[in-house]
Design goal:
With about 675 residues, the chain is mainly α. The protein has helices spanning about 80-100, 110-130, 145-150, 150-160, 165-175, 180, 205-225, 230-235, 245-250, 265-270, 290-310, 310-315, 370-390, 435-445, 465-480, 490-505, 510-515, 530-555, 560-575, 580-595, 615-620, 635-650, 655-680; strands at about 40, 45-50, 55, 70, 325-330, 330-335, 340, 345-355, 360-365, 515-520, 525, 600, 605, 630. This is Integrase.
Length: about 675
């Protein structure tokens, strides 16, 4: 049997641990293990979970940056009667069986966080079983009775709302089997244990999305002004009196004025940070610094989500030295060792997971905005690291928790907690109210969902922002921006998404080596199957379809050209009620996904032709007039004619350029007279 006890996603996909941290092998396939059986060790080889101990800690095996709760058997009951001890022993054995003989996840084994969740349900089950002792006709139940008697299990489901996780536990125990458990677990399909349907994270509407880009960009610029001073400022608070108002210092009996420390306002002036700690980051007292630093980290985290599409825990797992340069194309050197073409490099963010014998990197393209954000986070990290007495290096978390400012527990190192309250949310984000057009855009983005009847998305409500919305929105808008014009997008964002398209939309030859990791078993580079590249690619059909429908079907301007005429007929059919917009959307998404249709803006309107267009590459835009894939817009056609007429004044009448432009004007005018002006008459 493998020595692996738990597997956290891909964290231990090699199936082995270093020899110094290897847990005990299961000496017995059936029955209970010995009391000194080790379930988990930390990286130094110290046992953190021993079968006979009252506390099991599986944090060494977790993947998330945030710590999971320890499994405590000593706090389940107030007293320790024989019945309670028997229930605890049952739960220990069930957890042992789930760890070694359960199944699930990518690798067929449970994660540490899932095991922790399962214990929470089993804890409730133990308490339910014990409470039944108050019923003379029942008495204290065992977990064996609970999981084998339908009436008992139905009562538990009815009284305790644990359907989702309970279903997972029962399925796992069914897989473990009667031989190891000693009894046959009830089939969970006999009970109503379906999880409540959860909605997908919505795409952030364009108007709100653009405002978010501008807001967090401006806030980042504000913080970045003090990037060279933040470290020394934060580290100064290792002095417990620093930043406290003078009157409080007097009451503490620090001695004469020579012993007084700078109050907060003076401290900000000394470090040149007065213009940084204003508005949302105003900090008038030492007690508020923890909250302000958390808000600054929140801005940094939001920028990283916004421009990379990283998941929440992927960001929080980042270490201090997370930025690196990767060579995409090697330099071209001639026979005389002269560099003809410089190497092409990209800056990437990476999170690292330790494997046996090598490190696994998961990486994301880092634009200039992300680099600035990381530099701010590093400055804050260096200051906090001094309070924690840490060295900022490859093993130091980037988002160190600023709670060290308030709670002097240097041995309790953790990442920032952005979830215990909404204190990290910025006041300015509450100004992003949902408007009617935002709700309409939401409805178009997901026709199967009724946003109009969801209170969180009511008109006038602040947008309910979550970190995962950035991943979906970046994939959607990012894949669009390589083909479509979103002129109000910030220049940095549009530039970044076009670069991203070069790496994500094209082949994976370079992508695997830059953003993947080396798999020793396969002897090749592997792109993690949860990488953002796949979201980015899959967003293209939806974004192209939505843009086509929004631009073509919901605008009054008539359309001409090969595809334009077809779209115009579809508009009339929609107005007449012959077809539904959902049918057009579904058909369009399917055609884009199958490579039958594409979309990009042109000088005269748009083009739905798939693949390369030689005329477009050569600038011969009048070829669009006779192309089957063209969409001709009257306003753009008229503007092109005016531009061409103005261009004529730059050339002599007997020049070749004059003749070419004149020919273009004649073709454009002929199309306008034949197709557009005739229709208008």
């Amino acid at each position: 049997m493998s020595a692996v006890v738990l597997s956290i996603g891909s964290l231990y996909s090699s199936g082995q641990f270093p020899a110094t941290s290897e847990p005990d092998n299961a000496a017995q396939m059936y029955g209970k293990p010995a009391l000194d059986f080790v379930l988990c060790r930390d990286e130094h080889g110290n046992a953190t979970a021993v079968y006979g101990e009252p506390v099991w800690d599986f944090n060494p095996y977790r993947l998330s940056a945030k710590k999971i709760r320890r499994i405590r058997f000593d706090t389940i009951f107030d007293d320790r009667s024989n019945e309670q001890e028997a229930l605890i022993e049952e739960v220990k054995h069930l957890l042992y069986c789930l760890i070694y003989f359960g199944t699930g996840g990518r690798l067929g084994t449970l994660s540490a966080s899932t095991l922790s969740n399962y214990f929470g349900v089993l804890r409730i089950a133990m308490q339910f079983c014990f409470v039944q002792g108050q019923k003379p006709m029942v008495g204290v139940l065992s977990l064996r009775q609970l999981f084998t008697v339908p009436v008992y299990l139905a009562a538990f489901i009815r009284e305790r709302n644990v359907t989702g996780s309970l279903c997972g536990i029962l399925n796992q125990l069914v897989h473990v089997g009667q031989e190891r458990l000693g009894y046959v677990v009830l089939n969970p399909n006999r009970f109503d244990l379906k999880r409540p349907k959860s909605n997908q994270h919505p795409i952030i509407p364009t108007r709100i999305y653009l405002n978010l880009i501008n807001i967090v960009g401006d806030l980042l610029d504000q913080i970045y002004q003090g990037v060279d001073s933040i470290e020394s400022f934060v580290s100064s608070f290792s002095d417990e009196h620093y930043g406290i108002n003078i009157n409080t210092q007097k009451s503490r009996g620090l001695g004469g004025r020579a012993n007084y420390r700078s109050d907060m306002q003076q401290a900000l002036r000394e470090h040149g940070l007065v213009e940084v700690f204003v508005n949302d980051f105003i900090c008038s007292h030492r007690a508020s610094l923890q909250r302000v630093l958390l808000q600054m980290q929140y801005v940094v985290k939001t920028v990283i989500h916004l421009y990379t599409g990283m998941r929440d825990q992927e960001v929080l797992r980042m270490k201090y030295n997370c930025l690196r340069e990767e060579v995409v194309m090697a330099p071209v050197i001639d026979d005389h060792n002269v560099v003809r073409d410089r190497p092409q490099t990209v800056c990437v963010l990476s999170t690292t997971t330790k494997f046996t014998g090598y490190r696994k990197h998961e990486a994301w393209f880092a634009s200039s905005e992300v680099v600035k954000a990381v530099e701010v986070a590093q400055a804050i990290c260096r200051g906090l690291a001094k309070l924690y007495k840490l060295e900022p290096n490859d093993d130091c978390l980037l988002f160190l928790n600023p709670s060290i400012l308030k709670y002097k527990k240097a041995n309790n190192i953790s990442v920032s907690d952005f979830y215990s309250s909404r204190r990290e949310q910025l006041n300015i984000l509450s100004t992003l109210k949902i408007q009617v057009e935002d709700l309409q855009e939401l409805a178009q983005s997901d026709p199967s969902r009724d946003f109009y009847n969801e209170p969180d998305f009511a008109v006038g409500q602040p947008w309910p922002l979550t970190s995962h919305q950035f991943r979906r929105s970046l994939a959607f808008y990012g894949s669009s921006s390589g083909f479509l014009s979103l002129p109000t997008l910030r220049a940095q964002f549009k530039h970044m998404t076009i670069q991203m398209a070069r790496y994500y939309a094209n082949g994976f030859d370079n992508l695997r080596t830059i953003f993947g990791y080396y798999d020793e078993k396969k002897k090749d580079f592997v792109l993690p199957n949860n990488h953002f590249a796949f979201d980015f690619q899959m967003a293209m059909p939806m974004s192209v379809a939505n843009q086509l429908i929004a631009d073509m079907l919901f605008k009054e301007e008539p359309l001409f050209g090969g595809t334009g005429s077809y779209m115009e007929r579809q508009k009339e059919r929609v107005k007449a009620g012959e077809i539904k917009i959902e049918d057009i959307r579904s058909d369009t998404e399917l055609r884009v996904k199958n490579g039958e249709i594409s979309y990009r803006p042109t000088l005269l309107g748009g083009c739905t032709k798939v693949g390369r267009c030689d005329s477009f590459m050569l600038g011969d835009y009048t070829e669009c007039l006779s192309c089957e894939g063209a969409i001709i817009k009257p306003a753009k056609l008229s503007a092109a004619i005016e531009d061409a007429k103005n261009e004529l004044s730059n050339y002599a009448e007997d020049s070749g350029e004059y003749q070419i432009v004149t020919g273009d004007i004649e073709r454009l005018m002929a199309f306008k007279a034949r197709q557009i002006d005739t229709v208008e008459l």
